[in-house]
Amino acid sequence: MKRTIIVVVMLCLMLLLSVSGCGGTRSSDRDSDSPSYSELSSGRPNASNIVNVFNWGLYIDESIFDDFRTQTGIKVNYTEFQSNEEMYSILKSGGANYDVIIPSDYMISRMIDEDMLEELNFSNIPNYKLIDDIYKNLEYDPDGLYSVAYMTGTVGIIYNSEMITDDIISWSSLFDSQYKGQILMFNNPRDAFGIALKYLGYSQNTTNENEIREAYELLLEQKPILQAYVMDQIFDKLEASEAAIGPYYAGDFLIMKENNPSLEFVRPVEGSNWFIDAMCIPKGSKNKLNAELFIDFVSRTDMALKNMEYVQYASANFEAAEIFGADLDADDLEIMFASRETREKCDIFTNLPQETLALYDQLWVELKR
Question: Is 148 helix (H, G, I), strand (E, B) or coil?
Answer without folding.
Answer: strand
